[in-house]
Amino acid sequence: MTINRVTLATALVxxxxxxxxxxxxxGSPKGADTVKSHKQSxxxxxxxxxxxxxxxxxxxxxGIAVQKDALTSLVPSGIxxxxxxxxxxxxxxSDNLGMLIIRSLQCEVIQVTxxxxxxxxxxxxxxxxxxxxxxxxxxxxxxxxxxxxxxxDFNIYALSYQTSSPAYYGAMKRMGMETAMFNEHMxxxxxxxxxxxxxxxxxxxxxxxxxxxxxxxFGEVIEATAECHPGGANFVANWWSVDRKKRVSALSNLxxxxxxxxxxxxxxxxxxxxxxxxxxxIGEAPxxxxxxxxxxxxxxxxxxxxxxxxxxxxxxxx
Length: 318
Known about the structure:
The protein is mainly beta. It has helices at 5-12, 68-72, 166-175, 277-282, and strands spanning 35-37, 50-67, 80-81, 97-113, 119-135, 154-163, 180-183, 187-192, 200-207, 215-222, 233-242, 247-260, 267-272, 287-288, 292-298, 308-315.
């Protein structure tokens, strides 16, 4: 099924804008094959916020239409998953479909400043998020918004948010993000197959591990790099989490000047690890993005700017 790719790309894809890279080992789990899910190992500690700045990030993002009921079963009670109809894409059966958002980034630098003013910097790190658009009417306000309490352009519930950056993982852990994972073996590699032109490149994304959101992305993408950055759009985006005690946290972004193509390319595929939650949603065969897709680039605004706040926001409203 193809669902108005160009419009949905503009409306949903960008909703995944975050990215980082860092040097300090703060918050970093040890071990050679580390993919550690953050549960409530820090119970009793007070959650705290961190400022995040990221620089020169390349991304691949897209959406795959899946059954809304399946997505609803994966989010906490009190969180409402948007259907395609809710998002303005109305056709026969659209009430029963939602959107699985899949996004991966590679960033040159990320800098994180914690609530005590300590600064952590990592370089050349990867990120991978899987989530679904949600209704935020009962969620607390975030730092970056443009139209009321949560008037962000994009609001996505984070089913999984993985990073190879110890500093960024530390920020997510301190804010209480339930689905944060440190995955030091993630790869997001791009090979320019037509040097000297802004054309296409070969993308290879690997998100390994024995967990429910292990996947690969591969194929020929439209090139989006510093050299192929004509200027882009500004937007606000939030990635949400709610823990078992109904405590809400959000990665609240103010993204500026992002280049994002209308499609990532016709031959880009996602493959979920067999037997996982993700494969139950999209199947075990290679899956094209059915809702939208795009290849993006986030330029540097200079390290020291605050692009994102990793926020602990309080209890979920009843």
